Amino acid sequence: MPTGDASDDAKAERPREAVYRVLASIPEGCLASYGQVAELAGLPKQARQVGRMLSLLPRDTRLPWYRVVNASGKISFPAGSPGYQRQLEYLLDEGSAEASGRLRWRECRWRP
DNA sequence: GTCCTGACGAGCG
DNA sequence: CCGCTCGCCAGGA
Hints:
44% of the residues lie in helices and 4% in strands. The protein is built from four helices and two strands. The longest helix is centred in the N-terminal third of the chain and has 20 residues, at 6-25.
């Protein structure tokens, strides 16, 4: 076999799994930034990749995607959009946000 | 192959 | 605090 592309497939799925793992490890009541998740997943400087993966998650996923916000400490959906509303709901539920929509940032360190 | 887009982030004025 | 630019990288047209 002239090429070792079989390992490429496995390689392509590694980042995805790593992100899911980190995502699932975010403690309830905490918030993490895309960049933080990317770094913990071994993908430094690739916050956008994390965002893209989250956008591909099925609606019925059990992963706490809503605990991920941007580095400004805000929801990365346009205010008022469906995604924004949904995420805000979850965060209100966990006490990570106020009714006004303002998020309560907490410096959370955890072990993935 | 190139060009544009995107649930981002840091830097600068 | 706001808006703009550039860097990063995967996907789709």
